[in-house]
Amino acid sequence: MAAAAPLPPEAGANPDVSRIVANPAPLRRSGEGAGPFRKMVIRGAILIDGTGAPPRGPVDIVVENDRIAEILVAGTPGLPLKDGRAPRDFDYELDATGMYVLPGFIDMHAHGSSIDKAPDLSYSYKLWLAHGVTAVRGVQLSEWDVSSVEKARSARNEIVAPRIFDYQRLGAAWGQGTVRTPERARAWVRWAAKNGIDGIKFSLSPTEVPEVVKAALEEAEKLGLGTTAHLSQIGVARMNARQAGDLGLGTVTHFYGHMESLLKSGAIQDVSTDYNFYDEQYRFGEVADIWDEIHEPGTPEWKEYLAHQKENGIVFDPTMTIYAASRDLMKARNADWHDKYTMPQLWNYFQSNRENHGSYFFDWTTRHEVQWRNFYKRFMALMNDYKNMGGRVVTGTDSGFIYKSYGFGFPEEMELLQEAGFNPHEVIQAATLNGALTLYEPKGIVDPPIGTVRVGKLADLVIVKENPLQNFKTLYGTGTPRLNESTQRQERVGGVSYTVKDGIVYDAKKLLAEVADMVVAEKRRLGMPEQGLPRP
């Protein structure tokens, strides 16, 4: 396992960035994915198109190269499908009779598997694809020199990977030092735009003061770069989510900044007098305590805040999955997938450790979990109320930290949105169309090429046997137990069957098997038992 690189002096303000460069993914080998084809037909499916429309089917979906060319009525529900349906001049036919087709999922808060967590980026890529994630917003995926190359390789389908949108931290990679002034902020944004960076990730480091952020946001809007912010405790007293929205921020990621915008007394949370931001048990142990310092749901102040943010056009990316362990550590630590699919380096990173970010369970107590559960009630209500008034909510995971393995966090985020009050159709819309709109609108594209299943769109699709609207648990790679009434035995059902990206069909079960083999190989290399993982 590679040693962790030392954190720079102000790294505590960027707490969700690995700081370890990732190794590029190997080239896509023969047999890794089928296609794209001159003409492919996906037969007999039930379509959930991502717009919020109800399911419809059976349909035949015709894909030509990387685009959806036709969506054809294939028969009548309850009656047998007719054989020999047009078109017949296909090069590839996929029988999806009775299966469900959805748009590819979009993870709006992603970091790639760095060398302290896995041998290379293919580990995270394959787990994402195996869970139907066909596009990720890397915030950052990796250091810029790696991210930019991986983005291009994925676009050419030279590697097995989702499409990559490259967001970088303000001041990253340009080689001209830290950005400390508005003039330097504008100069960096111009450099970023010229070098293919899609957007900026703010974190309110000590140098990201309001006037610097304001300048960067103004320049980003001019040049078509998206923006998102983790409004960390380091700077939130001077710039909460309301203030950031007023300056033109595109997305608030996580919960930071929302609650500070709703404090009943002042602008600063009342943390303990011995609080230390760099001590992560203090940071994450006390951040949830803010839940009873804010205006309550339904109050005029609560409603006014949400209306104000809707007027700003700001997007909420709650990433509830990444902090879910804080409210139930045992559940997260013992999730079904860890033994088979969590890389030993990643598992080691998760363990309580004062150096690794997010490994903050030094002495996690019942009180901590109760406070986090109370916090989640308010946080979920905020997301649901925003959605109900027409505000946009998207799905992001931030996996690779806090017992969240890549890919598996996505269906959990969907489950958490449903817990928050979203109906299943609204969850799918958040996971598909809403993410696509958020990624492409800064570029001036109001009708994005991904995010819905429509004629003319890119063929980014998820194909599943189980109805996800009935149970999002069926989207986990490990599936979910269900009693077989014929045998009276429990069996695993679900998991994604196929993920299609740019018209290339990936067998999701095969991708998971390849990841399982990667995990076993690493355990052997490290002299560990092949089955299971060490637990305290």
Automatic annotation (TrEMBL):
InterPro entries: Amidohydro-rel (IPR006680), Metal-dep_hydrolase_composite (IPR011059), Metal_Hydrolase (IPR032466), Metallo-dep_Hydrolase (IPR051781). Residues 100-503 form the Amidohydrolase-related domain. It holds the Pfam family Amidohydro_1. PANTHER family: ALPHA-D-RIBOSE 1-METHYLPHOSPHONATE 5-TRIPHOSPHATE DIPHOSPHATASE (PTHR43135:SF3). This is Amidohydrolase family protein.
